[in-house]
């Protein structure tokens, strides 16, 4: 059953009725990483349902660039759709081109410096709240940072403290509810009137109301606040049609989800890996000391933060936050010489290809220096933390900017070490996160004066400029 030297076959060990549900449920990433040994296109079963897993970069590329035949679909997308509706990440191919065209301007490179300004302010505020010698829950802290940032970039208009806080809380409750649904996907359990289910439903309703209210306020004011919501309200297609209320709501959720659930684990894993590899951390200290001299990183610093970038790339290789994606064939087709009827489920996981020893020698080793000059020449489909083809992540540059600014600024000021004896485990949920990540934070230059973008209130208060003065409205609401 092969096509042009491509190996196609079933994964061993399927149990009657369960198929491969046990290894996939217990140690999903190990199970996935074991599949290339059985072929380039490997068939696994979950209960009676067959899934076709792509283990070869060429096949990954073929599938991702043909989004008409391999459309979004499958259990994870269905779950995300319950919250993000028909937003850019979940909509089917027939709606995608229009949505992508409308939303692309929000992520144009020209907008990055202004987004970066908001990022530096939030990073500065976070670092000011750290205490020398304390133990920090790194994952929770990074979640808070990226969630604040997502909220600020979506709704830059002045939100009072209470609204900002409640928005964040609702988002948190919706995320928690989604995670639970992912782990317990049986609909009957999700309909029971448990505290968790009630909180999820209430938070989702409140968020809908908030977005509707903000939309009405923005429309009434007729002002471009320079944030994502303003762009969503302003965009028009060739027929002069804008996004409907429902579409605006779905995009807000999509950006929030995309913006917070991915960059937080990326930053957490980067800090974890640096804590475990003091020699790399030492070199990174030299880089950030030379470039930043203790201040918060800004957009113009990024080209000089080469090792920071390589650490981020290597973390994305080892722990790609999005670890499993599915596609459903819209028609009967052939892949690797193998016939797939319409409705077949195809799985791609960046984790599988990123851990292949023939593509990344000694794949479990953390080695940022893999990402030298010629790394850009990697074959297609080999490195896909942001996907590929028409459905490639729209927030890639935004995310890399955020991660670079945050990592460089943290490392410039603080040294993070794992607690003695503490080991973290991977928890593959919607994204692959550490199960928990307590680390001790130590100030690197205890005597040094703070040189930073000054702090502002964590929730909703105005930010301040370098002299500690409140920023002018127009400087803060930069996009
Ligand atoms: C480290 C951070 C991030 C990672 C690893 C990541 C990863 C991905 C991946 C793998 C996809 C493709 C999914 C598929 O093929 O089914 C994707 C799509 C997407 N991401 Fe990201 N993402 C990140 C950050 C962001 C940010 C910051 C945003 C928005 C602010 C965002 C918004 C989106 C959207 C809207 C899509 C759908 C694009 C489309 O279908 O046209 N992501 N992301």
- Biggest sheet: strand arrangement: 1-2-3-9-6-4
User: Remind me, CATH topology of the domain at 1-85 and 323-384?
Assistant: Cytochrome p450
DSSP summary, beta strand count: 13
Approximate strand percentage: 5-15%
Question: Any idea what the CATH architecture of the domain at 1-85 and 323-384 is?
Answer: Orthogonal Bundle
Task: Present the secondary structure layout.
Layout (H helix, E strand, L loop, with lengths): L7 E3 L10 H6 L1 H7 L6 E6 L2 E6 L2 H9 L4 E3 L2 H10 L8 H11 L8 H17 L6 E3 H17 L6 H23 L3 H5 L3 H27 L6 H7 L10 H16 L2 H14 L1 H15 L13 H13 L6 E5 L3 E3 L2 E3 L4 E4 L1 H5 L41 H18 E5 L7 E3 L3 E3 L3 E6 L29 H4 L3
Parallel strand pairs: 1-2, 3-9
Antiparallel strand pairs: 2-3, 4-6, 5-13, 6-9, 7-8, 10-13, 11-12
Helix pairs in contact: 4-8, 6-7, 6-17, 7-12, 7-13, 8-10, 10-12, 13-15, 13-17, 14-17
Bound molecules: protoporphyrin IX containing FE.
Protoporphyrin IX containing FE (HEM) binds next to helix 12, helix 13 and helix 17.
Keyword list:
single chain; 479 residues; alpha+beta; Cytochrome p450; 6-stranded mixed β-sheet; 3-stranded antiparallel β-sheet; 18 helices; 47% helix; 11% strand; globular; disordered C terminus; binds protoporphyrin IX containing FE
